[in-house]
Amino acid sequence: VNVETMFGLGAAALVGTGLYGLIVLAHPLRKIIAFNVMGTGVFVLFGALAKRGAAAGLAADPVPQALLITAIVVAFAASALAIALIVRLIESTDTASLASDPPDEAAT
Amino acid sequence: MTGGIVSLSMLLLLLALAVWTVVVREAFLAIAGFVAYGLLLSLVWVRLYGIDVALTEAAIGGGLTGAMLIGAVSRLRGTEAAARAERSGAGVHALALLLSLAVTATLALCVLVLPHPAPTLAPQVAENLPVTGVGNPITGVLLAFRALDTLLEAIVLVIGLIGVWSLAPDRFWGGRPGLRYTSDPDGILAYFARLLPPLGIIFAVYIFWAGADHPGGKFQSATILAAMWMLVLMAGLSDTPRIDHRGLRFGVVIGPLVFIAIGVLGLFTAGALLAYPPQWAKPMIVVVELALLPTLTLVLGLLLAGPPLRRPGNTS
Questions:
Q1: What is the band of A103 on the pLDDT scale with cuts at 50, 70, 90?
Q2: What pairs with residue B29 in β-bridges?
Q3: CA-nearest residue of chain B to A104?
Q4: Is B313 on the interface with A (CB under 8 A)?
């Protein structure tokens, strides 16, 4: 098994791990971390594809690699916005719940 | 063979850390795992021959994102227990597991049946790179061949910052982001905050300039500058600027504006949007990168600082 295939398969597992966390974790901050894990899985898969595209004396295809740099920066901006939203949600509602029916209200 | 073992152990450790960030109980431990994960990931990029990506990942993916998450978790303390009580049932867990396994299996299958030879744009890049006057193919792609992506990215960053700012409560609009840090002026933090920035700035300028021909460039350089700025802020040596400061806003938008101006200029001088006349390609790329540097530094730093939390005029 060559490096590209190995990292490609690992990336598939990372996407799955992140997706699982995104669904089952209740706290929104944990969801953001899980989403980032899922995103990096996609990045690694893309990076493995870039490595497969090695040609013309270049060790990897520079086009997907350049897009990866863009993707990492945009992912950071998206995470920053998501975190700001959560902090604001908690400060204005005193709960981190994303449920349409928060547990406290459901109990009364 | 040794390379294969290194790759495999790296991958297993990466997967273990990914699982850790999902299953661990405390959010803080998950974040610690995520930072380690980001650093390990940058080694993966080195294995995949993406040195520029590795630099970006280490600086932004691990460093800035980690710092931002730690800042958030300290403000969200107390909401964790309630969230834990809200855990979804066994049925949801089983379905989520099934779905994740299905997605992983599908992706793995795709990886195994990829076409040979792999499609690639590397020959076209190698062939056309000399025209741009840039030696680093990644920089060539970012600022010449796929300049539109980079322009849109810079705009997305500014929009992201506007989004974060707009979450400020009305009474704090125009005020300063984040809290005012204080630290012992003779302490080790203040000492480092005086010692490191000059070195960091030299390093950032080197990374910026070397990016034309070697791994590096404006993104990595801007992250280092933003980190130095954060260090000075956290040591209490300086305060975040008011978000209604004209100079600050000008710095935030200068990059995209110059990029668009040069792109429109290309319509008349080279016959296409974002095209450069051949003999002017290198200087124009340098101008665009120079204009993007303050934008990226300010936006990265201000995204980390968050929405304004203090009334305009209130300096404490």
A1: low
A2: none
A3: B82
A4: no
Show which of residues 270-289 on chain B sit within 8 Å of chain A, judged by CB atoms: none
Of B34, B84, B300, the CB nearest to A26: B84
pLDDT of residue B1: 63
Minimum-distance CB partner of B85 among A5, A36, A103 = A103
CB contact under 8 A, B76 and A8: no
Sequence-distant (6+) residues with CB within 8 A of A29 are A83, A86, A96, B27, B69, B72, B73, B76
CA distance B311 to B316: 10
pLDDT in tens, B79-91: 777 777 776 678 8
- Residue A95, chain B, CB below 8 Å: the answer is yes
Helices (H), chain A: 3-24, 28-52, 62-93, 103-107
Contact B232, B159 (CB under 8 A): no
Segment B246-290, tens digit of pLDDT: 888 898 899 899 989 988 888 888 778 888 887 788 888 888 888
Beta carbons within 8 Å of B77's beta carbon, 6+ residues apart: none
ipTM of the complex: 0.88
Nearest to A9 by CA among A60, A59, A69, A49: A49
Q: What distance in Å separates the CA atoms of residue B216 and residue B52, rounded to the nearest whole number?
A: 6
The alpha-carbon gap from B254 to the nearest alpha carbon of chain A, in Å, equals 18
